[in-house]
Every structure is written in structure tokens, then in C-alpha cells.
Amino acid sequence: MCFQMKRFPFYSRFLILISLFCLLGCSGNEKQLPELAEVTGNVTLDGTPLADAIIDFYPQSSQEKSNSRTSTGVTDQNGKYTLMYDNATPGALLGDHLVRISKTDGGAEVAGPEMLPAKYNEGSTLKATVTKAGPNQIDFELKSK
């Protein structure tokens, strides 16, 4: 009986310590994300896939602007992109977006002179609507002139 009494305090402390770690791990440190939808698509320039272009979706409604997070993607060699809400979360906010597409001669990772007309980036006239919580396919067919 003496032996069991000595073990009881050790196990009690061990169980309390494990419980505290579990509570701290589940304490709500996870970020609250708004409703997002997967957005993918293709970008072409004069009918040819546009590689290494940066695609930005800027939310336009007042509710979306309060979240004010731009979703961004980069086209691959085939002109395909997938938007990311942040570094770990794919998607874009539901609703209307102003879209800017930019490409420099140094590619997506190097600053340089813009290769696309301003109507696709600085003075963008591109719009897109993310309409559903499922996958959204939004393609852009750009013209060099």
C-alpha cells in the first residue's frame, strides 16, 4: 500500500501536465479564415500560354475589403495558376475582384520592366467573380496590343 501511495502523486502530476499541454494546443490559436473558394485558371497572351506571370485578385465589395487580403498566384510554363490566400491557404474570397496580371522580363521572382500592357496591371480593367465554394476556373486571354 505504501508503494501505491508513492506512485499516485507522480501519476497525478503527469496527468495534469499532459492535460495542460492538450489545453494549450487546443486554445484557439488557429486563425479564423473567411469563406474561401479554390480558384485556378489559364493565362494566355496572344493565344500562347503566359509563363511566370503574377496574378492578383483584389476583393471589391465593402465586406471583402474589410478582410482586405489579396489572393495571389504565379503561372507555370503552361500558363496555369492556382490562387493562394496566404502562404499556407489556397483560395480567394467569394465575390467580385479586380484582377491584375503582371510579367517582367526577369520572371515572377525578379523585378524588371513590365512586359504586359497597363490595362492588365497598373490600370487594370480585368474583373472576376468567385462565385462558389467549390473550384472556380477563371481563364484570362490577354492581347499584347
TrEMBL record:
The name on file for this protein is Bacterial Ig-like domain (Group 1)
Q: Does the keyword Signal apply?
A: yes
Keywords of the record, alphabetical order, are: Signal
User: Organism source for this protein?
Assistant: Gimesia fumaroli
List the signal peptide residues. Answer: 1-24
